[in-house]
Structures are given as structure tokens and as C-alpha cells.
């Protein structure tokens, strides 16, 4: 297993500890519940934004904690939902007079944990709402999901809700922002390789040396089909068409365009994909107002990428422009 | 070959086009010389900072073009120095009354190209100096290098020189900053896998399923030894000791600490390494004033990482704090 790990069972708390050591002024770590939160949250003047899911998708979700983004996140083991008590303690730790919004990517395991935790918190009088993100157009229903899966579009929901909360919007208003972004964002991905969860020690699916999985899920769930690897532009064309036709996006739209790496693909290749995607967007009459190229929602060291389009308007552009800070940074 | 490419011969210009399409206000692309430059450079009021090397190390070098960083960069093919005429044209395109500083990572191919280009530019009356970066402590002399190799420490040289140039320092003063950073920065890396250059289509070295290369170069050059993979903390300890004993760093030092991914290692694993490195730095009596965890200087999709320490003082901290902007960003 070609990985930097100590005890595989401690992989998640060890990397979480690293995140907090690297951001000592900003973040604090609760090891018992594998939860990272902003030191200055909750703040009763604003809604708390919370998320928690399986690990292995970094920087989602736990590295997205910071001002203008998540207030806190609890992590399960790699590709496993966090336990109910961790979700419950996370809601309690971030309970604000203004309320708590839990953003859940649509997987049955995560939903079950957060449903129970939300009920428990509500029974204690905490004002908490839950929203489900499901931007993946590849398939309806999946290995671990009823309905569509939540993938890289999650970043935009967090960014917009975090900005709305920072601006003092009410819980209902922030929830409406989540709904608006989720209704406006679509993603599809492709995998060239599997990945190896540290505690498993072997790949999560088999794929031939000349094969790709079109429409893959971020836990290696099957997509639309297995195919031989195609040139980059052909792959982008399929992702772009699937995504753009879904809402649909139409000529004249202002969009954000994201090429998200799944973990093992170098950034140079992501920019090869971006070049084609940008051209396709322009040919379709879209104005690419903002772009995002890098890793936002990964599957450990999986080689692969996804393409996301977000339909913008003045409100969403303002929310995306608002200042934000997370553990992942260059400078 | 599990890669997003079209024609492998066009891999470099295609990803460069993507970078510029993603940063239309900031950058412009000269395809003939595979050169990206700031649109607003040269500026005769400040020194131009220039670099150019083989591709495959992204975000170094070409994604480091931007305000407060490089003014321009020309790229060779993957792992091949840029041609002399590209280097010469890059110097000419960035020629400023205040002078041009060329930052060269210490590889013979790059030095030869930039030596000739610098001479040609000087013969035309352009005020240009050249500085060689050699922060890799792993080995003296290497496959493609006389003396030590230049690796991830390059980021700090660029950042500090870019800030000094933006502050209006003279060419001699900016050169002195490069010298100071290079004298204060040390790096060592380890590889778990090889990588596959698109035009080659096969790995650049062989390595067993349970092996690692300690002290690897960013073109797969041999390091200090081949060994079986060790726990993450053991690996960090060896890198940390090699780096910290080299200047040496001493108790009481204020340092910047970088864990750099070599391309195929997920950021979660980099934070496992960071946690140990941070602890070792504290145990050694260093104050970690700033930290950097992510990809700064890679080797395509190689699984691996390097550890860098930079000894700080007030001047360097101010230069690192100065605003800067590059193609690689989260928001």
C-alpha cells in the first residue's frame, strides 16, 4: 500500500490533527468525535453551517471549515458516515441562537446519521434544519444513494451558505440559498483508477489498464458505463454535455465552471480539461464568470476528474465573491 | 496510460492554454515559446522575476506567475529544459529598466539554456542576473545536476523575490534576497511511486510494491537509498533530521515548514506528515511561524512528498506576508 500512514485505524484523527496544528489560530479539534470547528463559533449573531461525512474526500469536508465556509465538521472513517453521536455533538457544539444548517451530501448513511442527530438536537430545543445536496447527474439512485449523489457541487453550496450566514441572513434565508445553489449546480465525473482506503489496503473496484468509469461516484460507485480511455477533449465533451443539458443551461447564462481533481490526477491534466471545458462553455453561449481548477472533492488518490457548472445570478456572484478562509491555501 | 491527454506532444501547450483561459485578466500566453507572462509586465519601475524549466512540476513554475510572484515563465517539454530561444525571448519580453532576475533551479540542462540566453540578452544591453536554487539536501551531484538540486524551496525564493521586486527593490537587492532565502532553506523528499511522462508513456524508474526512494529527485533521480516503506512518522523523522541538521537549524529558530506533495499523494496524507513534522519542529525548539501543506513542486502523478524548512527573520517574514496571486487558488 503506497501511502503515508502510521496505524491505518488512526489515519483520520492523525490528518485532522495536522489540519489543526497548521491552523492554530483558526481551528480546534475534538478527537473523541473527530470534529473540527472554528474557534470563534458558534456566534449567536449568525447561523452556523455544519457538515460531516465519510473521510477520503479531502479537502471536503473538514478542510472547508473556516470563516465564510463551514463552522464545523465531523468526520467518519474513510468512506463511512460519522456516527450519530458525533453528528449530534457537532450540532450541539455549534448551536447558535440564529440556528444551525446541516448540509448533507445525499448518501443514505450520512442521511440516517444526520436525521437522528437532528431529531435529538431539536428535542433539546436547538433550531436546526437539514439540506441535502445532490448535484451528480450521472445516475439516478446508486450503490449507497436513493436519488442523485452529492459531489463537488457541495463546495458551492458551502461557499454560498457560509457567505449568507456571515452576512447575517436568517436560517430560512440561508436554507433558501442552499436550495438555490443546489438547483443551479450540476456535476459529472470520470475515474481512470480506483483508490485504496488505508484500513482496507486494497482497491475499491477493479478497472483495466485501458479503461475508464464514466459517471463514477466518489466512493467508486458505478457510473453510466465502463469504456476505453478516450482523448481528454472527448471525455470533457461527454461530461460537459451531460451536465449542461441537465437543468438545462442555456445560451446567455452566466456560469461558474469547475474542474475538480479526484485526488491522483496532476493539476497540469486538470488544466488540459479546463481548456476544453472553457471552450465548450463559450461555444454554448455561456459566460464563464468564475472558474475553479483543483481539488475540491476527492476520492483519496483516485485518478480522475469531474466537471461542474453552476448557473449564476447577481446574488450568487456576490456570495461567491465574499471573503472566505479554509485550511487549504497556497500562501 | 491513465492520463487526461489529447496528443501527448501537445500536453504542455494545452495545459498552459487552460491556465491562461482560467486567468484571462491576469496572464497572457505565447504559444511559440511556451511562455506565460503577466499582462501588466514588464513594469520599468520594478525588477522582473523570471523562471523557466521542464514541465511536469506544476504548479511550479508556470502556475507561479502572478502579482508578487513570477512575471513570466517559459516551459520546456515534460522534464526537459526550455530551448535557449524561449529563455532568451522570455528575458526580452520581461526586460525592465530595473532589470531582470532569472531564478534557475540547479539542473545542468536549465543552466545551459539560461546561461546562453542571459549572455544573448546582456549583449543587447538588457540588465539581467541569474541565480541558482539548490535546496535539496539529499545528495551532492545527481543524475542531471552538479551540486545540489533545486526543488520545493524554489517556492520561497520566488515568493520573497517577488515581494521584494514589488516593493521596488533594486536588482542587486532582489538578488541578495534570493541568496538569503536559498542559504536559509533546505528540503528532502521521498517517493513511493514513479510517474509516467505523457510523451514517454512508461514509468521513469522501477520501484517495488513495498519500496520507497528516500531523497528522490523531482525527475525520479536516485536519492540516498532504496528502502521498504516505513510508517509515516518514521519517514518524517528521517526527512526532518536530514533537513534540520543541514544548515543547521537551531533551537530558538523561527521557521516556515512545508510539506509538499509530489503529485499523486492525497492532501489527507500530507497532513499526517505535517502533524509529525510540526511536533518535531516544536520538540527541536523551533517556532513554526508559517506553514505550507499542499502541492508546490511536483513530479506529475508521483506518490511522494518532501519536507522543507526555511529559517526566518523579520525581513523574510515580511516578504512572505506580502500579497501575492497565482493561477492556483481555492476561491
From TrEMBL, chains A, B:
ATP-binding as UniProt keyword: yes
Family annotation (SUPFAM superfamilies): DAK1/DegV-like
Keywords, ordered alphabetically: ATP-binding, Kinase, Nucleotide-binding, Transferase
Domain DhaK stretches: 7-330
GO cellular component: cytosol
GO biological process: glycerol catabolic process
Stored InterPro entries: DhaK_dom, Dihydroxyacetone_Kinase
PROSITE patterns per record: DHAK
Enzyme Commission number: 2.7.1.121
Recorded GO MF terms: ATP binding; glycerone kinase activity; phosphoenolpyruvate-glycerone phosphotransferase activity
Keyword Nucleotide-binding belongs to the record: yes
One Pfam family hit: Dak1
Matches recorded under PANTHER family: TRIOKINASE/FMN CYCLASE (PTHR28629), TRIOKINASE_FMN CYCLASE (PTHR28629:SF4)
Protein name (Swiss-Prot/TrEMBL): Dihydroxyacetone kinase subunit DhaK
Organism: Croceibacterium xixiisoli
Name of the gene encoding the protein in the UniProt record: dhaK
Amino acid at each position: 500500500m503506497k501511502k503515508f500512514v502510521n496505524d491505518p485505524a488512526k489515519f483520520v484523527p492523525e490528518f485532522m490533527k495536522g489540519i489543526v496544528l497548521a491552523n492554530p489560530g483558526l481551528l480546534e479539534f475534538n478527537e473523541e468525535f473527530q470534529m473540527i470547528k472554528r474557534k470563534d463559533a458558534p456566534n449567536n449573531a449568525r447561523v452556523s453551517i455544519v457538515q460531516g461525512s465519510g473521510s477520503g474526500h479531502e479537502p471536503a469536508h473538514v478542510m472547508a471549515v473556516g470563516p465564510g465556509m463551514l463552522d464545523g465538521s465531523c468526520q467518519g472513517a474513510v468512506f463511512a458516515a460519522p456516527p450519530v453521536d458525533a453528528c449530534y455533538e457537532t450540532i450541539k457544539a455549534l448551536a447558535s441562537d440564529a440556528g444551525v444548517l446541516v448540509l448533507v451530501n445525499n448518501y443514505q448513511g450520512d442521511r440516517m446519521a444526520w436525521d437522528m442527530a437532528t431529531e435529538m438536537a431539536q428535542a433539546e430545543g436547538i433550531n436546526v434544519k437539514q439540506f441535502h445536496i445532490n448535484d451528480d447527474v450521472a445516475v439516478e439512485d446508486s450503490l449507497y444513494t436513493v436519488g442523485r449523489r452529492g459531489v463537488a457541487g457541495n463546495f458551492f453550496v458551502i461557499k454560498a451558505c457560509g457567505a449568507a450566514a456571515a452576512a447575517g441572513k436568517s436560517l430560512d434565508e440561508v436554507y433558501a440559498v442552499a436550495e438555490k445553489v443546489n438547483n443551479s449546480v450540476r456535476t459529472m465525473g470520470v475515474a481512470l483508477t480506483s483508490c485504496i482506503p488505508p484500513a482496507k489496503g486494497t482497491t475499491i473496484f477493479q478497472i483495466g489498464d485501458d479503461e475508464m468509469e464514466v459517471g463514477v461516484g466518489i466512493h467508486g460507485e458505478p457510473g453510466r458505463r465502463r469504456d476505453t480511455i478516450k482523448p481528454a477533449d472527448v471525455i470533457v465533451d461527454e461530461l460537459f454535455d451531460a451536465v449542461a443539458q441537465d437543468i438545462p443551461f442555456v445560451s446567455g447564462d452566466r456560469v461558474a465552471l469547475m474542474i475538480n481533481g479526484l485526488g491522483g490526477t496532476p493539476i497540469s491534466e486538470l488544466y488540459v480539461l479546463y481548456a476544453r471545458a472553457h471552450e465548450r462553455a463559450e461555444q454554448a453561449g455561456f459566460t464563464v464568470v468564475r472558474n475553479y481548477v483543483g481539488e475540491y472533492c476527492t476520492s483519496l488518490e483516485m485518478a480522475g476528474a469531474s466537471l461542474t457548472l453552476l448557473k449564476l445570478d447577481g446574488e450568487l456572484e456576490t456570495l461567491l465573491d465574499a471573503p472566505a478562509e479554509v485550511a487549504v491555501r497556497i500562501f
